[in-house]
Amino acid sequence: MKQDDEQGIIRQAQAGDTAAFATLVEKYGQLVFNLALRTLHDRLEAEDIAQETFVRAWRALPRFRAEAQFTTWLYRITINLCYNRLPHLRQELAAMDADEVTGLPDERQTMETRLVMVELMAQVQTAVINLPDSYRLLITLRHIHDLSYQEIAEVTNLPLGSVKTGIFRARRLLRQVLQPYEELTHG
Amino acid sequence: MDEMVSAQEQLLDQVLTTLPLAPLPEGFTARVMAQIEQQTHMAPVRFRLDFLDWAVPTFTAVFVLVVWFLLQSTAAAALSGTLAGLNLPGLIIMLLSHQMTRLFLLLLLEIYIGAVVGLWLWYDRPMSVVYRS
Asked: What is the structure's pLDDT at A105?
């Protein structure tokens, strides 16, 4: 879907066109569902949150401003709903300091090649699942939903420094999973 | 050491960005849209000045006018009858001749407006309006 097409569909949905809104649900449903799933760890709850996200989005759609990213807006609704389900999540995120960040990779860095390492992916996936809720949320937003640090800060309503710290700590935990695969990191 | 960390970071990036997304539960969109449909409800028609807003007062005003003319004519006829004694029927007809023409025209107008308003009310009877909550 092109950006212009999407803007048009959003405008139609804002005017009350339910078919246009269904197109948006179809397009972004999986992303919203996965964000909720990775945050809550419960398929049924995640589906419930994802549905509620779209229902709230529908109600709030007339107030949505076109200059904002539609996905970021949806993620913000999703995360607010997750905060309600996991009250400690917001506290954990807010407790992160902004003074620990060193050596975070450039967020614009792109992957030229994709490794086919099913075992390692499974290990990392398990490690992501076992991360504390707050770290898992940040890692999910950064790497699975491909948001910038700034966007994550906006979506989670956290200071940019806290976001960077959280992602740094989460990655440090995840790097431990890579220790047995050291030979891969040497070339 | 730094090189190793950097290499691990890159590897981590690669793995994290290739983590698969869970498929959307079947029927998800339909369930969302069903909830949204439930959110809609009936609402009154918004205020606007319409044909009926002018026709009904006109009809009422003309109706009052006709009644007033009728009462006036009846009163005049009764008075003339009392005064004229024996010549009552002829005098009444003469007195009312002008009034009858005007009344007749007014009644025609009244019937016409009444018919139009009645038809309009039938075709413009309140319909449901659905809007987003």
From this structure: 54
Nearest CB among A22, A144, A178 relative to B19 is that of: A144
Give how far Cα A158 sits from Cα of A91, A92, A98, A153, Å: 11, 11, 11, 5
Amino acid, res. B10: Q
Tell whether B75 lies on the interface with A, counting CB pairs under 8 A. Answer: no
| CA B79 to centroid of chain Cα atoms | 47
For residue B100, give the H/E element and its range: helix B88-123
Q: Percent of chain A beyond pLDDT 70? A: 80
Let me know: does A141 contact A134? Beta carbons within 8 Å.
no
- Give pTM, 2 decimals: 0.59
Contact at CB, A26 and B29, closer than 8 angstroms? yes
| Closest residue to B28, CB basis, from A29, A115, A128 | A29
pLDDT tens digits along A115-149: 345 667 777 888 888 888 889 999 989 988 889 99
CA distance A21 to A13: 5
B1 vs A: CB within 8 A: no
pLDDT tens figures, A146-177? 899 999 999 888 899 999 999 999 998 888 87
Q: Which residues contact B95 (CB under 8 A, 6 or more apart)?
A: B73, B76, B77, B80
